[in-house]
Description:
The chain is of the alpha+beta class. The protein is 28% helix and 17% strand. It has a five-stranded antiparallel sheet with strand order 6-7-8-9-10, covered by helices on one side. The protein has a four-stranded antiparallel sheet with strand order 1-13-12-11. It has a three-stranded antiparallel sheet with strand order 2-3-4, covered by helices on one side. Strand 2 (103-106) and strand 3 form a beta hairpin.
Amino acid sequence: MGDIERLFDGPASGLPAPLSSRVALYRQASEEEPPVKHLAGYAPFVVFCDRRGVSAKDLAGGAGQLITFLKTHAGELAADPELSNAATVFVGNLIASLRPDAHWTVMADGSREAGDRELRITVDRLVDGLQDADDDMLAGLVTRLVDRSTAEPESPFPELRPLPVRKAHTPFVRPELPAREYRGEDGELIRYGNRWGAESPPEDSYSVDTHPERFEGLHAVARALVEYLTSNYDVEVSLDPAHAADIKVHAGEVIDVAGVTPRDFQSAPLTFLWTSYPGVVVHAGVLHDFPFPICGCDACDETAETEADRLEKLVLGVVAGGYAERYPVGRERWVEYALTAADGSGSHSGRGKVAPAKAGELEAAEERLRALPEGWRPWPLARNSGVHD
C-alpha cells in the first residue's frame, strides 16, 4: 500500500485526534500534533481507477475531474464499504491539498472533515451524497472547491501565545485513579490506550463506548483540582447549579457543578461540571468549553490517565496565566483560544464558530476580552499559599 499511496504531498499518516468540543473548534497546527494533510487508506480507490482506465494521479490534481468521476461511479463505490471509505479518504486528501492551511479534522463524534477555516466539508457523507446530486449541485461543489483553492488568504491575526508566569511551591498531586481490568464481549482483556497500534481503528468502533466507566476517576481528579485551587489562590467557590448554564456543549446528565472565580476580574474563571457519563466539562474564561474525555468511543481509545493529563494541563495552565481567548476573529467572526502548559512543556490552540449564546452574551465577552490582548492574567494568590512569582 505504501508505494501506491504517494499521490499527495508528504507521507501518508493516520487520523488526527478528535476536536476538543462539539463547539467545532478548529484545531491548529502545534508542536505536539502537526496537521494531517495526507491520510492513508485510499489504495483500493487507486486500483479501482486503474481498472477503469483513469489515472488516479490526474484525479488527485483536479477537483472537477474527481467529482465527475465520483458521481459517475457513485453506485459502485457505495456498494462496497471498503471502496467507499477509500474514495472518501482520496477526496478528503484532495480538499486538504487545496490550500496550505487546509487539513483533516475529526469531530468529537468521529465524523471526518477536510478543509480550512473558511470551507470545511464532511467527507464521510460526500461520496454517498453524490448519488442523488444533480448537475447544479455538482457544479456548485466544484466551484466552491476551485474558488477556495485560488482565494487570497485572509489578513493574518497575531498568534495567541500566552506565557504562564506563576508557579506553586506545592505541586498539584493527582488522586489515585481506579485500577481495573476491562474485557470485551469475547472475554479478552482490552488494553485501552494501545488497542489499535499503528493501524487505523475499525469502522464499527466509532460511536461505540464499550466501557465508559473507565473514566470515573476523572470525577475525583476534578474535585481534587477544585480543592487545590481553593487552598492556593484567592477565589470564590460557588456550588450553585445555575453555573451549569455556562457550559454550551452537550454534556448529558449533570450530577454536580462548581464555579471557581478568582478575585481579579482580569483572571479567567473556571466552571467544573461533573456528568453521569462519567466525565467532566470545564468552561474556561468566557467562551470555551473543554470536555474530558473529548470522545470516549472505542476508536479514539482514550484512557482516564491521558484525559486526567489534559484536565490538569488546562486548569493549571489557566491559573498560571497561560490562557488566552479572542473574539471576534476575521470576516467569519470566529472564536479562538490558546493554552500554554504551566511548566511551559507544550501549547495548543483552536479556532471555530462560536456556540449559540443568549442575547448580549457575545457582546459582553467581546468587551471583556478586548481589555485582555495578551491573555488572561494569572490568578491572585491566597495568603500563605506557598506560591511565588
